[in-house]
Amino acid sequence: MITHLLTRIDLSMHSLSKGQKRIALYIEEHYDKAAFMTASKLGETVGVSESTVVRFATELGYDGYPKLQKAMQEMIRDKLTSVQRIEVTSSRIGNDDVLNSVLNQDIDKIRRTIEETSHEDFERAVDKICNADRIYIFGVRSTAAIASFLGYYFELIFDNVRVIDSTSHTTTYERIFRMTDKDVMIGISFPRYSTMAVDAMNYARSQGAHAIAITDSMVSPLVKSADSVLIARSDMASIVDSLVAPLSLINALIVATVLKKKDEVSENFRRLETVWNREGVYASGEKDEEEETEAGKKNGK
User: Fold this and answer.
1) 188 sits in which H/E element
2) I want to staple 132 with a disulfide (CB 3.0 to 4.6 A). Which of 137, 154, 184, 219 is the partner?
3) What is the pLDDT of residue 291?
4) From the CB of residue 252, how many other CB atoms can be counted at a distance below 10 Å?
5) CB pairs under 8 A, 24+ apart, for 272-279?
6) In 3-state terms, what secondary structure has residue 162?
């Protein structure tokens, strides 16, 4: 089965109508822009009707325009530069309300994550994490923040967590060289994918560790070495990486591990609460009210 879009276009070019050929040529030259256009917008851009665009998708063997659009997006998943991201985001939002536009796009990513993430892989990942000798979490650049978030909560639950956020091969391998088949590696990476994340996942697989990929698509380079794949939709064309859905998925992973180890975790948190209260880690609402009262008296209120 022919899967690459450009190959499909080349093989079908002789049978395409004049209008469809205009679409094909535009996609070949500007797929980075076309990938984020609606069928109506693409048709308007090349001077054909929306129905012609839909028929073009069918002619290439796709089940509707959304599947063609997805194929274009897969082509550029690893290729959009920061400047191109700005241009694409500008064309997508235009004069719309930025706040509403961005929030609605993030809502859509969470919805798609619900639809696409494997419950079987999720449950298997939770089980492996709870029974691992050591838990390695790898996330660099923009994903370092959510790797750190996951590591923070896992360190409250487990005593065998190691977060790796270095892009240096030497530093990374120094942190993971003791990995065995009793360990778990959680690799987190989204477009543009980290080469070091791929290498770390490959190493984990070679050592027999259970490799868990948190990424955006089954075509992600992390998937090849993964035993469990957790799909969370990102936005490769946004000016900034949208990590709303990945963070939501990580929240679910934390909650699931807590529930699986409920008694042990509850005891851990009882002990932590004692320490936190003794050390005054968190501000007290009553104390804040007293301070506000005293401040009011000083101000003559």
Assistant:
1) strand 184-188
2) 184
3) 55
4) 17
5) 272/156
6) strand
Strand spans (E) along 175-236: 184-188, 210-215, 228-231
Phi-psi region of 61 (alpha: psi -120 to 50; beta: other; left: phi over 0): left
Contact 46, 34 (CB under 8 A): no
Segment 145-186, tens digit of pLDDT: 999 999 999 999 998 999 999 888 999 999 999 999 999 999
For residue 265, what pLDDT band results from cuts at 50, 70 and 90?
Answer: confident
Q: Are 142 and 190 in contact (CB under 8 A)?
A: yes
Contacts of 34 (CB under 8 A, 6+ apart): 26, 27, 42, 45, 72
Interval 187-199: pLDDT, tens? 999 887 889 999 9
| SS3 at position 77 | coil
Q: How far apart are CA 182 and CA 285, in angstroms?
A: 45
136 within domain boundaries: yes
In a domain, residue 234? The reply is yes
| Helix (H) or strand (E) segment spanning residue 202 | helix 195-206
Looking at the structure, do residues 244 and 125 belong to the same domain, yes or no?
Answer: yes
What is the CATH number for 232? 3.40.50.10490
